[in-house]
Amino acid sequence: MAKKPDWTGPGSTKMIPLVSSVVKEAGYDPERRKMYLRFPSGEIYDFCNVPRSVFDDLLRAPSPGTYYDKNIRGRYPCH
Questions:
Q1: Measured at the alpha carbon of residue 40, what is the angle toward residues 18 and 57, in degrees to the nearest 5?
Q2: Strand partners, 37
Q3: Within the chain, which residues score under 50 in pLDDT?
Q4: What CA–CA distance (Å, rounded) separates 43 from 63?
Q5: Is residue 44 part of a domain?
Q6: Is 2 a domain residue?
Q7: Residue span of the structural domain in which 23 resides
Q8: Contact 23, 38 (CB under 8 A)
Q9: 78 belongs to a structural domain
Q10: Is 79 part of any domain?
């Protein structure tokens, strides 16, 4: 479940806190179709050519970590 935007990530992307032990925050830049995820280590990873629906589904997922593992991990690389 997502909460209100907490802070600004890369560029002016609003990062939204997630209730998850795997993914702490997520942000999406619709113009670039780029998603940013912050992990517990504090590192932010970017994912390219991500459909908006994937980001929206991550925010609505009962378990964002499980959704990440099944639908995002290893996909949407930025070259």
A1: 30
A2: 26, 45
A3: 1-5
A4: 20
A5: yes
A6: no
A7: 7-71
A8: yes
A9: no
A10: no
The structural domain count of the chain equals: 1
Average pLDDT, the chain: 89
Q: Can you tell me which residue has the tokens 């907490």? A: 6
Phi/psi of residue 2, each to 5°? -95, 155
Tally of CB atoms within 10 A around 54: 18
Residue pLDDT, tens place only, 31-53: 999 999 999 999 999 999 999 99
β-sheet bridge partners, residue 2: 18
Q: Produce one character per residue of 21-53: b if its CB has 16 or more CB atoms within 10 Å, e if not.
A: ebbbbbbbbeeebbbbbbeeeeebebbeebeee
Q: What's the CA gap between 7 and 46, in Å, rounded? A: 16
Q: Are 38 and 28 within 8 A, CB to CB?
A: no
Q: Which residue has the tokens 């908006």?
A: 52
Separation CA 33–CA 50 (nearest Å): 5
